[in-house]
Amino acid sequence: MRYNYVSEFLKNKFGERVLKICVDGDFSCPNRDGTCGIGGCIFCGESGSGEHLKKAPIEKQVQNYLSSYRAQRANKFIVYFQNFSNTYDTISNLKSKYNQALIDDRIVGMSIATRPDCINKEIVDLLIEYSKKYYVFVELGLQTSNDVTATNINRGYSSDIFTKAVTMLNVAGIDVVAHIMVGLPR
Ligand code: SF4
Predict the structure, then answer these.
(1) Protein residue with least CA distance to atom 2, ligand 1
(2) What pLDDT digit, counting tens, does each position of 4-42 carry?
(3) CB-based pocket (< 6 A), ligand 1
(4) With 90 as the cut, is the pLDDT of residue 3 above it?
(5) Which of 27, 63, 72, 118 maximizes the CB count within 10 A of its CB?
(6) Which of 80, 156, 78, 168 lies closest to 119, judged by CA?
(7) pTM of the full predicted structure?
(8) What is the domain class of 6-180 according to CATH?
(9) Domain boundaries, given as residue ranges, for the chain
């Protein structure tokens, strides 16, 4: 294989299958509310790239998953905050939302999807705290390292911001998954 599947990586790390529980944390995005842009990335849907998720309290979303047939396929789970930018809030709100998801002993980790311009020292420090008990990793939407293409898709940040965020997270020992779109026009 020329690339690693996250599912295989997690299986090797935990010694068994680990499934993601996708959660809508009811966040927003600075590229949609006018902070750094409006309208968002051109590929982003109304629900912030998590259209299949139903709106519900976070705890309820996790409970629903764990009590469904899907949870019969594994013993370990990672909560995946998927929609919008899941570090784009105050530290106290972030804590509250993350804690609402960590409600079951079978949950071994937390994956946070966000933008690199929503990573700063306070957020990294918060993630370090969670990583003492859980496997925490961050999923950053890069899509392309070409800044012209990034402008064309209205990504709203330059690629050096991505590099800085990854460096900050990796120095803190937090793994990063980069979301890439292959074949974007230049
Ligand atoms: S950064 Fe994510 S949530 Fe925000 S507009 Fe782009 S794809 Fe959507």
Answers:
(1) 84
(2) 889 999 999 999 999 999 999 999 999 999 999 999 999
(3) 29, 31-32, 40-41, 44, 48-49, 84-85, 115, 141
(4) no
(5) 118
(6) 168
(7) 0.95
(8) alpha beta
(9) 6-180
